[in-house]
Design a protein that fits this description.
Largest sheet: 3 strands, antiparallel
Number of strands: 3
Number of domains: 1
Structural class: alpha+beta
Radius of gyration: 13 Å
Helix content: 40-55%
Shape: globular
Strand content: 15-25%
Number of helices: 4
């Protein structure tokens, strides 16, 4: 999976923020804040072969059932696709 290179991950006061740089600053209406799971997934997307690999990572890290891990991962990835980040 590939994410847009025009976004830089920053941690500010404990919050994970995606900051658009270059021409994408004008395309986007500001910063993107990620919750804990979003930041966890974001950090693993570049190395993940597919969505199943991300679900497996969520299951290994969090105490959650597979259906919840799969649904939350799919929702996050869908939002990234809708914003043309992924």
């Amino acid at each position: 999976m590939k994410i847009r290179k025009e976004l830089i991950r920053r941690e500010i006061a404990g919050d994970v923020i995606l900051v658009p740089v270059g021409g994408t600053v004008l395309e986007n209406n500001g910063l993107f804040a990620l919750n804990e799971l979003g930041a966890f997934l974001w950090d693993r997307i570049p190395a993940a072969a597919d969505e199943d690999a991300l679900v497996a990572a969520v299951l290994a890290e969090y105490e959650v059932d597979e259906a919840t891990a799969r649904a939350d991962t799919a929702e996050f990835l869908q939002k990234l696709r809708e914003m043309e980040i992924l």
